[in-house]
Amino acid sequence: MTQNAPPVGGPRPEDRINYAEVLPHSTKILILIGTLLGLFLAALDQTIVATSLPRIVADLEGLNLYAWVTTAYLLASTAMVPIYGKLSDIYGRKPILMFGIVVFLIGSALCGMAGEPWFGNLFGGGMMQLIVFRGLQGLGAAALTSVAFAIIADIFAPAERGRYQGLFGAVFGLSSVIGPLLGGFLTDNVSWRWVFYVNLPIGLVALAFIFSKMPQLASGLKPKIDYIGAVLVITFSVPLLLALTFGAEAAYGWTNPTVLALFAGAAASLIAFLFVESRHESPILPLTLFKNPTFAWGVLARFFIGAAFLGAILFLSLYLVNVQGVSATKAGTATIPLTMGLIAGSVLSGQLASRLGYYKNLILIGLALMMGGFYLLSTLNADTAYSTVILYMVILGLGIGPALPLFNLAIQNAVHRWEIGVATSAGQFFQQMGSTIGTAVFGAVLTSSLATQIPAQLRAAEAGQPPAVVAQLEDTARQAATASSGQGQSAPTFASIQSQITAGFARTFGSVETAVQSGNLSRLMTDPALPEGLRTGLAQIPPAALQTEQGRAGVLDQVRRQLDTAQADALATARKAYDLSGRAVKVAFANTISRIYLISIFVALLALLSTLPMPNLRLPRKGEGQGGEKSGEQRGGLASMEG
């Protein structure tokens, strides 16, 4: 339990309004609805855009900037999370949440208008406009995600929070189901711009609920604002995220001078941040919080969970596309079983925590189940049945579900009320950083493993095959090696290969036909495209056979039959090589992704080991206070709270 005193100039704990005690339940539910709508905005935006990105890139002509549409949002939202958390502790949740929604809606409207003629060449064109406006969206979304979880701690007693925290996990799960479906529908039937415009009505409804029903939810603290700490948070997190993004790209790599400079800048900012925070009277992230074992071990566990969770989603979709053969669009919805398991685990664990009054054992059970889910996924191979994959996804979702809400609950229960905002946002910041670092590390594992797995599997496929098939497999292996270095193209379909072979034989027959009609076959004897048997046969044709129309027709008929036979043999060889290479690539992807899930088991184990030292604090019920405080004397009326 933290022993921190309130910052200089703050109220005494017993003087602070306990909103969990004084707000009517009906008002709490209305606040909850508005908060969930605001959170749904941010969660939906992370999933709805992905389905529309190919169409957006085609319209705005910015394929080279494809990844930055997501990266800009991530940079802005991650860097601002701890800052908004601290500001909400000082000025109250309501103004910060409303500010975040307004900024998010402005960013959404501008994203929808990116590339329109009236913007001209602002920021260099439509794609850069979208990237800048996505960054603005991220600035607003950070307030939604950081403040929303703190509001639950403000209006409900610790023992009641679990059942409502589960709803927040369900919102993220629901958005991952609705987002791809809605994004695809709007893009195909209306316009990709409505992927952003759809946020406006939802956001306005959320604003109406929050403005009319939510009290200030302020701590009453009036400390000095830590401006230097806020700047250092940004100069630490943004370069770090950029370094991780660039380092995972083939165009840069981890030893690139730009990447190393970004890492160095992030390290310098971190050192300066720790120095400033240890001396400021009201820091953005009070370092004394790390003396609280629940907070310290909790944020460390969330860091590992963030790395494991996002990796599970990203690489499961990759497995479904490259091994199971589902389309890229369907892969977005194929993870619904995992989402359903996550929602069920989140809601059920929250209800149990509220009933039992304790959370630690539920977290440990969830993490153990998560490890079991990762173990099952590590057994995936090229022949795993789709129904088996669904079962494994559900088990993993049931394991991840309890971790998301219950760590929030644990951290909020262990700190004083005036620290809830900064503690909650710090936990989320660590989780997002874990997701980013985990994605970069797993991406590096994917790239390096595929670079060795694909050639190895292609060589294994050559065993016992005829020389023509072996030659094509070796050519495929060379193309794979080129692609892994960032210089190759996407693999051709068999239809395109078949078309090339057919067109090649048609050209060969055309050349033979021209030579036969001219009566001069000598130039064909040096044509490497001509099959050896056909070249030998043509060399044996007496010149007199080419002097009559009937003789030339007979020669061409013989050539046609030989070329048809050779074409059939070539297509059969190509089909065999194509099937073998496709199988080899599937096996390579399955082996690589199963290896990533083996690493995920270790990451989940680190989360479990980080949880073990956490105290198993009881969740106080209504009227018992929190964090070692007395519940205090309540001051009358909602009017005074609004002030």
TrEMBL record:
Stored InterPro entries: EmrB-like, MFS, MFS_dom, MFS_trans_sf
Region described as Disordered: 619-643
Matches recorded under Gene3D superfamilies: MFS general substrate transporter like domains
Membrane topology: Multi-pass membrane protein
Domain Major facilitator superfamily (MFS) profile: 31-478
Pfam families in alphabetical order: MFS_1
Major subcellular location class: membrane
Alphabetic keyword roster: Cell membrane, Membrane, Transmembrane, Transmembrane helix, Transport
Annotated TM spans: 29-53, 65-84, 96-115, 135-157, 164-182, 194-213, 225-246, 258-276, 297-319, 331-349, 361-377, 389-411, 596-614
Subcellular location: Cell membrane
PROSITE patterns attached to this UniProt entry: MFS
PANTHER family reported for this sequence: COMD, MAJOR FACILITATOR SUPERFAMILY
Name of protein: MFS transporter
Species this protein is from: Deinococcus aerophilus
